[in-house]
Amino acid sequence: MAKKKIDLRDLSKEKHSGEHSHDDGHNHDNSDKTTLQMFLPAIISFTLLIIAIALDNWITQNWFNGWVRIVWYVAAYIPVGLPVLRDAFDSIRKSDFFSEFFLMSIATIGAFAIGEFPEGVAVMLFYAVGEVFQTLAVQRAKTNIKTLLDQRPDEVTVVKDNQSKTVKAESVEIGDVIQLKSGEKLGLDGELLSEKGSFNTAALTGESKPDSKEKGEIVLAGMINLNTVVQVKVTTAYKDSKLSKILELVQNATSQKAPTELFIRKFAKIYTPIVVLLAVLITVVPFFFVQDYTFSKWLYRALVFLVISCPCALVISIPLGYFGGIGAASKNGILFKGSNFLDVISTIKNVVMDKTGTMTEGVFKVQEVIMQPGFDEKTTLAMVNKLESQSTHPVATAIHNFVGEIDSKISLENAEEIAGHGLRANVNGKELLVGNFKLLDKFSIKYDLDPGSIVYTTIAIAYDNKFAGYLTIADSIKEDAQEAVSKLHDLNVKLTMLSGDKDNVVQLVAKKLGIDTAFGGLLPEDKVEKLKAIKSKNESVAFVGDGVNDAPVVALSDVGIAMGGLGSDATIETADVVIQDDKPSKIAMAINIGKQTKKIVWQNIILAFAVKAVVLVLGAGGLATMWEAVFADVGVALLAILNAVRIQKMKF
Question: What is the pTM of this model?
Answer without folding.
Answer: 0.67
